[in-house]
Amino acid sequence: MDRVFKALADPTRRFVLDRLRENNGQTLGELCESVQMARQSLTQHLGVLEAAHLVSTVRKGREKLHYLNPVPLHEIQERWISAFDQPRLDALSALKQKAEFLMSTENEPRPEFVHTTYIAATPEKVWECLMNPEATAAYWHHHNVSDWQPGSSWAHRRLDESGIDDVIGTVVEIEAPRRLMLTWTGPSEERPHGPSRVTFELKPYGETVQLTVTHVNLRDEQELRQITGGWNFVLSNLKTYIETGKTLPVPAWRP
């Protein structure tokens, strides 16, 4: 938390966070132009923000996209700000809600939803819980079913023995225990621009695992809003399940 307050104490770094709040997923060059600062100087500021987990990054080819990460802000809200007056609480809530922003390019979709969390576990444990049907049943309320080979199909199957798959897709990339990319679509859903795509990236971070989930090629802002609530709950439930062996209360959207 000391790193968070140190990062927020600098007006330049607050300005960078504001730019990401307005237009999430920017490259270093785009941020330099927006902030009007040399690359070397801005890189140092971004390093402080990343160390505080206020900014997370996703690589796209040779570029590195920067995203506002709302988790530390949420922790501040829970620990201190909830005791303050409502206007201040509302201001922070508005900042958090705009942390993920719909962005796209003409030729290739850019990450549209990005969420980073830190789990006190090994990469192997988190990896197992992402794909093991019984583990996903506990925290995701679905069985994730596949042989988990590149090109294989996968299904997000209900627990009621109906055999209904709420999501289906293909395993695009798999590199245990570091990276998993899946296509993602409803069984009878028509998507003019093809299925959306979800990527799980795991990186050791001290005694924890940094888990970053990106969900791209969403249809529109309405779909972004719909999946944001779902992913936030699932990833919070995954973290709770791995660290405590328990899960959060069942969400309202459970089938």
Question: How would you describe this protein?
Answer:
The chain is of the alpha+beta class and 255 residues long. 40% of the residues lie in helices and 25% in strands. The chain has 9 helices and 9 strands. The chain has helices at residues 2-8, 11-22, 28-35, 39-51, 71-79, 86-97, 123-131, 133-140, 221-244, and strands at 55-60, 63-68, 113-119, 143-145, 153-157, 165-175, 179-184, 196-205, 208-216. The strands form 2 sheets. It has a 7-stranded antiparallel beta sheet. A two-stranded antiparallel ribbon has the order 1-2. Strand 8 (196-205) and strand 9 (208-216) form a beta hairpin. Helix 1 packs antiparallel against helix 4, helix 7 crosses helix 8 and helix 8 crosses helix 9 (221-244). The protein is globular, with a radius of gyration of 19 Å. Mean pLDDT is 85; it is low at 98-109.
Give a quick account of the main beta sheet: strands, pairing sense, barrel closure: 7 strands, antiparallel
Secondary structure class reads alpha+beta
What's the end-to-end separation, in Å?
A: 38 Å
List the secondary-structure elements in sequence, H or E: HHHHEEHHEHHEEEEEEH
> C-alpha Rg, in Å?
19 Å
Number of strands: 9
Q: What overall form do the CA principal axes indicate?
A: globular
Helical proportion, percent range: 40-55%
Give the strand order, joined by hyphens, for the main sheet.
3-9-8-7-6-5-4
Uncertain segments of ≥5 residues (pLDDT<50)? 98-109
Number of helices: 9
Strand percent estimate: 15-25%
